[in-house]
Amino acid sequence: MLPIVLTFVLFADPQWTPVILYGPSTFDLTETCRTSAHPDDASQFIRCANYIMGVVDAQAEGPTEKNPLNRYCLNNGITTVQLSKVFVKYSDDHPEMMNKATPFVLARAFAKAFPCSR
Hints:
Blueprint: E1 5-8, E2 19-22, H1 26-35, H2 42-58, H3 80-93, H4 102-113
Antiparallel strand pairs: 1-2
């Protein structure tokens, strides 16, 4: 099971309370998504799919000045299974990315597999 650690940072202003979430490492998510290919382990698939869809939802606004990495375009027909396979393949092809932030690696994998047409 992948631990998720929640860190709450409180500032003097009670209106401003950011939450920093630390999810699985790129290595851990790659292994979770890899083992989720086995149909008898639904819990692994759910972990993989939920994390990937959370990142996709968070990056849904597309590339911006603050976040230029979201340079991928997903059509409506793409499934979570396809996204997890793209991520695992990208991670296998780029082992040097295993120590990078997981959302960053997901965005790179999706940008390579699903580039936006200009």
